[in-house]
Structures are given as structure tokens and as C-alpha cells.
Design brief:
- By secondary structure, the protein is of the alpha+beta class.
- It folds into three domains: 6-98, 3-Layer(aba) Sandwich (Rossmann fold); 127-196, ATP-grasp fold, A domain (Dna Ligase, domain 1), CATH 3.30.1490; 201-429, D-amino Acid Aminotransferase, Chain A, domain 1 (2-Layer Sandwich).
- It is built from 14 helices and 22 strands.
- It has helices spanning 6-19, 35-39, 58-67, 84-92, 102-109, 111-120, 136-146, 172-187, 244-260, 293-300, 304-312, 393-405, 416-424, 426-429, and strands at 24-28, 42-47, 72-73, 96-97, 128-129, 150-154, 163-166, 192-196, 201-210, 216-228, 231-237, 265-274, 280-286, 329-336, 338-339, 345-346, 349-350, 353-355, 363-367, 374-375, 382-390, 408-410.
- Helix 4 (84-92) runs antiparallel to helix 5 and helix 12 (393-405) runs antiparallel to helix 13 (416-424).
- The longest helix has 17 residues, at 244-260.
- The two termini are 41 Å apart.
Amino acid sequence: MIANRGEIACRVIRSCRELGIRTVAVYSDSDANSLHVQMADEAFHLGPSSASESYLVGEKILNIAKKSNSDAIHPGYGFLSENSDFCRGCSDANVEFIGPPVQAIQDMGSKSASKRIMEAANIPVVPGYYGKDQTLEKLRKEAKRIGYPVMIKAVLGGGGKGMRVVETPEKFETLLEQAKGEAMSSFGDEVVLLERFIQKSRHIEFQIFADKHGNVVHLFERDCSVQRRNQKILEESPALGMSQSLRELMGGSAVEAAKAVNYVGAGTIEFIIDVKTNEYFFMEMNTRLQVEHPVTEMVSRQDLVQWQLHIAAGHSIPKSQSDLHLFGHAIESRIYAESTEKGFLPSTGQIKYLSMPNENDRIRIDIGIRQNDEVSVFYDPMIAKLIVWGEDRNSALQNTEHALNNFHVVGPETNIDFLLRAVTHEHFRAGALVFFK
């Protein structure tokens, strides 16, 4: 069963088909005619369109798993993919959760707890404060010790929510209240941590895999520095300027991070690199398959969903570290239904016309919508991922530009023009970070 919707559900179904595995889809009211429902061998209705009444109700999903005789559940990303209670429920129902153990999800679900675990494993973390004392006096004192500017982060945060950069002590209390308020409304918890804000940095993450026999490997890095509203929009692999020695050092840290929490399955260790010093620091671990996993698939020539299925079935990791190699360069562009002129606000409505570049060995499109489908107000506005490969970064950029120019959506507004501006910008092509308004 795929306990998800949209492009990731379609993506998982494709890999299952190649392995001869039958699939079960679940759907809400507004997804009744969706592509993932038609692609699956069976489909079951979950409930109303709101995710809180459908895709986030673990009990409903587990009941359908039992009814459909599903052996395993793939959670995709988002929804219940990092929910330890749902993972535990799968175990109690004797259904394989295609993901890590409950304890690993819990340990890595808290930004403060995960940093303490990494410190104990001698993995570098951003200097900061991760303590339980949340009084204003204590937080002010710790911010001063760390040194301004500091980053306030919600401990249970994600997606850029509950985050504020504080440049001076005078602004600390106001921005702290904002971060806590946003954290409470988004996650039901207002606990925050403080970190040194590294002003010139790159966001580099390593894809790791671990099996049930204690084996762990990494499949190299992705650069996810280009973001809007603290959310990724362009990802590429390998990272520009990454030396082989630094790759081996960071990859080794990523593997040790996975071992520190007895990890199983696909995971991502996220680091921040200080551009000035080349120091790297652990930020967090995502205990699931990432949205941007296709760029790793393109450069490693591996199917990561099939890896997940093999590992969940109890097999060893398909490749050893020495058998894994980088091939060329890949870039992923996330295509959103949103108005870039209105602060990236989501855009909804019917897809009246859809024309995409032809897929081949250099162009891949992961998509969960078709012409005449509706982009709903109920879910994330990402409608597709364009993944492009080239022999080197320059050819990958040229291929991306060509593909974006041939990707047309009529109906909701999209960020395609914005992505074109980014990938053709002289600074981005030179490898510098680009900040757009």
C-alpha cells in the first residue's frame, strides 16, 4: 500500500510494477479520479478531502491495509512518513513499515535531541543551545554566548516554519515570540533551539541507506542551497566545488550518523557548510525518502525505491560503498502551482492545458497530475518534478533550460518562469547563491 498521493504515489507504483509487486492506493474525496488511483491495482476511499480526515488518519490506513491484505506500507514523504505512532501501529498490525524503526524516527524528529546524539557520536554540529530551559532570560544569555546573528528554530519544526534570524539583541524578544507562536500553530509545540547563523553557507545533504544487518552506505551528496521561503526548489548532484576528500569526510560522518541511531532504510543527513571556512555541521536527519531523491538516482544509476523495498524485505543493501560511483550531473526543478509575484502564494484550479518535454535518458518527469485535473487547495502545491542529466554541470544546465522552455501549464499560475530565471542567472551558473525577490 502507498499511504500517500500525487507524484510520489505514482513514483512508488512504477518501481513496484518493475518488481512485479501489486499496489494499493488510498484516496480522499478530491483525489477520487487522480492518476495514482488509476495506476494502482486496487484503490480504497479514505475520507474527506482534508488531510486531517484522510491521509493523516493512521487508523483508517491500517484498516485498509488489513482489508486489502497488504504486506507493507510505503509512506512516501510528508503526511505520516515521519510519524512514530504510525510506524508503531504498522508493527502492531504486522504490516512492514517501509522506513526506519520507531526509535530512530523519535530520536531524529526532535532537532535538539538529534543534535545531542550527534555530538555524542563526535559528528560536528552547529554551535548553539538545545536545552530545556526556555525562559527568556536563559535564551537571551545563550544567544549572547553564541554570538549574533543567531537562528531561532522550532525544535519540532520543518518547512521553514518557526524559524527566525535575529541580527541584534534588541530584536531578540520580538522574533522569539513570532517563532514560538508560529511553532505552536504549526506543530503544537513552542519549544525552540538557538544556533549560530552562518551567513555564507551551502546546504549539502547526503543520501544514506542502511539495512537490517548493520550495513550502511551513502550515495553521495546533493546541493539544496537554492530555496524560497526556506523550502528547496532546485537541487543538484554532485555539489559544485565538492572535493573528493571533503566528500569522503562528510559521507563518513553521514554513515556514522545513521549508525548512531541504528537506522534502517532510506534517510538523508543534512549539513550546512560554512563557505568561509569549509567547516561542515550536522543540521538534521530526514527519516524518509526525500522529494529530491531522483537527482541521486540519475547520478548513481540506482532505483532508490527498489532499494527501500529490498531492505524492507530483509535483504542486504544491493551495493557496497566501493561499488557506488557518480556519473555526470543532475538537476531537479520543483514545479509548483504558485504565484511568484504574490510571495509564492499557492495557485489552484483546473489544468486546462499541459505540455511537457519528451522523457529520455537525460530528461525525467515525476508527476501526479494530467490535463484537466484540478490543483486542490487541500495539499502541497508542487505539481511536478523535472529532473535533468548531463555529462557535466554545464550540459545539465543547458538541458534544464531547454526542458523548462518546453514545459507549459495553462490554468493555475506556476513557477516555471521563475525557475528559468534561476538556472540561467549568471551567478547561479557560476556556482554562486542567487537570492530572488
